[in-house]
Amino acid sequence: MNFSEVFKQSNQLCKISPDGKYLATCVQYRLVVREVSTLQILQLYTCLDQISHMDWSSDSLFILCAMYKRGLVQVWSLEQPDWHCKIDEGSIGLVSSRWSPDGRHILNTTEFHLRVTVWSLCTKAVSYIKYPKACQKGIDFSKDGCYMALAERRDCKDYVSVFVCDDWHLLRHFETETQDLAGLEWSPNGCVLAVWDSSLEYKVLLYSLDGRLLSTYSAYEWSLGIKSVTWSPSSQFLAIGSYDEKVRVLNHITWKKITQFEHLATINNTKVVYKEVEKRPTVRSDNLSLHNITIGTNLFNTQSKYEICPPPVQIPVVKPDPDRANPKIGVSTLAFSSDSRYLATKNDNMASVVWVWDMQKMSLEAVLEQTSAVRCFQWDPLRPRLALCTGNTKLYLWSPAGCVSVQVPTEGGFQVQSLNWHCGGDSLILLGKEQLCLCYMDTDQVDK
Amino acid sequence: MSPSRQNNFVSMLSSLPLSRSSYNVICAFCTEDNMPQCMSYINQELDSLGLCSPRIEASSPGGAGLNTVPALNAMYELMQIHRRNMCTLEELENDQLKKSSTLDHMQMNNSRLKDQLELSIREKSGLHETERQLQLKIKTLQSCLKTEKDEVQKLQSIIASRASQYSHDAKRKEREAAKLKERLGQLLVDRKDKKLALDVLNSLGRSDGKRSHWKTAKTTTSHEDEMYKSLLNDYEVSQRSLLLENAELKKVLQQMKKEMIHILSPRLPSTRGAAAENSREQADSDGEEKAGDTSRETLDQSCEHAREQLTNSIRQQWRKLRNHMEKLDSQASLVHHQLESNKEVIPRETHEDEMERMRREVQQCKEFIHAQQQLLQQQLNTSFDDETAALLNDCYTLEEKERLKEEWRLFEEQKRNFARERKNFTEAAIRLGREKKAFEEDRASWLKNQFLNMTPFTDRRRCSSSDGQSALSVRSEPEMRMSSTKAQLAKSSAYATFSTPKSTQSATVPSTTELYRTLRLIPDSSSSRHSNRGSWQESNTIDDGDFRVKSNRIQCRDLSIFSLGGDENSLT
Questions:
Q1: Which residues form a coiled coil (chain B) (predicted)?
Q2: Which residues in chain B have their CB less than 8 angstroms from residue A83's CB?
Q3: Strand pairing report for A72-77 and A386-389
Q4: How far is CA B244 from CA A233, A340, B239, B249, B292, in A?
């Protein structure tokens, strides 16, 4: 495992182009484009204000930089550095900005979600979509880039509009049976749209592409409901994480629950529980971590390793304040591995634990208990390998063969706040507060 | 007279029944004769009663009268006493009556109270029972109450969380509305509306490089078509995968059914009729299934009828299997139960069987041994049955003879081979010896010649003598050879040995080694040659000294073995 040097970034805006060749980072109001392999700066662009959001177009030719405060979006071209494009939303403000799947249209959501403006870079035309819903996930593009689903709210009722991304033609417009639509997501095969309600009501609705309601699923009433929803990459499963600390998995044939995963505070079965154990830094000789690259200044970085705990294992549980809204309880993060074999979940009242479930056996595969709350985890796009970080200077990797904790070798401590895999699966971008670092994996994986 | 009379009176008095109207007794008690006795008696009685009346005396001595006053006093006192007694008697009787009545009353009371007590006990138990039931009811109600309370609490917590969520959302919305109002106010005030604008250097081409099309009805329908196409594609794909899965599962079911049939059919031997029925049923179902199979294959396995049949037959088979298993289980448990309850039954039976078997075996073995013994006896004592014994003997001896003959034959063959070898050896050895001898002779003659050449007189004579000697030696050798071979033959008949032959010799050097040496034509020392010659000469005496030769042979044999070994070693 190699680590690159540390670069500056701001706002956690650091993205690799879809073709995997370039890395774009934002430093205050500058946009820096580097080549991934050499990390040489290829282009440097200057925007008019501090960049709030940055994204690559799907063909990796253009980058949009949005400055929400100023209501501006600037688009830069990689091929033609002289080309410039500026979109000014004017007084109506800007809340979010995104590319369309074809990379030639920009959708801006105005302040107060008054409307969605669709700017065409080909024709310079503008179209408006009214009444977009201000919710957790109101817009979603299908994976093949053909269709866009938009949640709308009119007259206290929720609607979903399906647009054809080619010419923004409204294909379908239908009402949903939700109380307060919180989000929608296309299945990876683009044929089913999952729509779920807010946390006050546990309801998932499945609509086919042509707007027919295929199925409704509601696990229980009254208690706080859905916290997170995700599709498996094969479109076979829909995993729903809810506030009752359970994940329910629906199958794509009958749209009925096939299993539910419970996050218990005591693990009794013989599944492997990896517990991160920190070692005192004075013990230098006893280096049990496989890939601890010890540099002299690591005296303050405590080394850690994973220990396998024998069952029964007690998981530390933090009880949330019952009076506050959006309590820190329930399954907030779900992620399927790329082959749909594993599902990684995080339960918010066991924030330092990541649970890995095997979808073939429908059972718990591994539990990773960290020393502090897990901030981010992501699956390798190609292999069943999970990378996670907890806000300290270490990077943790899990695979079915075992797991390893790696110290990020930087001077001055680099707290890993979030991470992103490269689309080729052989390198990781680690983002700290103001810094970023690239981690290159070996071709053969090293395990514990 | 007085004591006897008194006694008479007393006995008379006592015998007569006491009655108040027994004045006749007084008449009987006292007569004119026994007055003084009566009087003394009465006085005595009065004294004993404690009456202090004066004594009754006769008015005149010897007269028939009495002193009336004391008599009257005595009588009066007696009457008083009597009245008193009567009074007390009456009182006592009264008392007794009273007491008996109270006793009766008490007894009645007692019985009544007992009844009451019993009744109250029963009541008490009934009350206990009701109390218990009520306690139970209380418990259940308490648990219900607890659950209800828990549920209420849970609902309360849910309500609380919902309320907090609602309030949070409401607050958020309110804040947004406030922002909106603010912005609206700002806009109205500002009036410097920044127009939204797109400032782009140049338009970009479409990502797919094609020209954009006008929006027409055709495009909308084409969009619709495309959408439906993609949907249909997806459905088709999923249907195909489901069909495949179905086919797999059906195959598995078929296999299972076949296996179940296979398992069940040979294991129902008891109920033949049932088995026949089953098999017929199976055959029927199989037949149907077979027909269904073919049709199914052709119809792409979508025939619901066939599917139903398959599942029904599987269920049937499974039921049979399960029943069978249950039967077996029950049998096993029964056996186990029997085993546990009555430990000797089963094991003893098997045990007895085993014992029986073993006894039989033992019997058989004994018989066999006996037969063997008999045979042996017969063999040993030929007098039993001469003919058969003779026959047997003959048989045996014949067998033995045969064997012996065979062995003899082999032996003879071997002997012949050995003899032949030996002959060859000896011939070769003899030849060699002869040659050697000749050489020696020549050498000797030569030397002699040389020597004599130094003295020029005896040349020719030496040559001739040497020739003569060599001729002699030559002549002697065939003799020796023949004799040696004869001796060897004789010897070999007695001993079947491998020892390479030869005439042996004195203990100095075994001839066989010499022989080998000569055979291999190893350059020998002259002494050895001389000794060889010596040996040959000695062999002449073989016929005479058999035993000596024998011993020598023995020696030689032993030595030869060693020498052979040695030679072999040297060879290798």
A1: 163-190
A2: 201-202
A3: unpaired
A4: 21, 21, 8, 9, 19
Tokens standing for residue A53: 């959001």
| Ranges assigned E (strand) in A295-393 | 304-309, 313-314, 331-336, 342-347, 353-358, 363-369, 376-379, 386-389
Chain B residues with CB inside 8 Å of A88's CB? 194-199
pLDDT (tens digit per residue) in B190-208: 766 667 677 777 777 776 6
Q: What would the two tokens of residue B113 be?
A: 């109270």
Q: Quote the CA–CA distance of A229 and A239 in Å, as a whole number.
A: 6
Topology of domain A131-262 in CATH is Methylamine Dehydrogenase; Chain H (2.130.10)
pLDDT digits (tens, 9 = 90+) for B256-313: 888 888 877 765 554 444 444 444 444 444 444 444 454 444 444 457 787 788 888 8
Q: Which whole-number Å values give the CA distances from A50 to A26, A34, A44, A96, in the listed order? A: 9, 19, 15, 15
Find the length of chain B.
572
Give the Cα separation of A37 and B563 in Å (integer). 89
Judged by a CB distance cut-off of 8 A, whether residue B204 touches chain A is yes
Q: Letter for the amino acid at B226? A: E
Q: Is A338 in contact with A233 (CB distance < 8 Å)?
A: yes
To the nearest whole Å, the CA of B232 is away from the closest chain A CA by 9
Q: Bridge-partner residues for A117, per DSSP? A: A108, A128
Angle between helices B511-520 and B386-454 (to 10 degrees): 60
Question: Can you tell me the ipTM of this complex?
Answer: 0.77
**How many other β-carbons are positioned within 10 Å of the β-carbon of residue A294?**
14
Name the residue in chain B with its Cα closest to that of A321: B161
Pairing of strands A427-431, A418-421: antiparallel
Chain B residues with beta carbon closer than 8 angstroms to that of A124: 198, 200, 203
What is the rounded CA–CA span in Å between residue A295 and residue A305? 17
B212–A167 CB contact, under 8 Å: yes
Query: A124–B164: do the CB atoms touch at under 8 Å?
Result: no
Question: What 3-state DSSP class applies to A187?
Answer: coil
- Taking only residues 440 to 459 of chain B, the set having a beta carbon closer than 8 angstroms to any beta carbon of chain A reads none
What would the DSSP string read from start to end of A188-242?
TTSSEEEEEE-TTS--EEEEETTS-EEEEE---SSS--EEEEEE-TTSSEEEEEE
Rounded Cα gap, residues A428 and A422, in angstroms: 6
Domain map of chain A by residue range?
131-262, 264-280+302-318+328-407
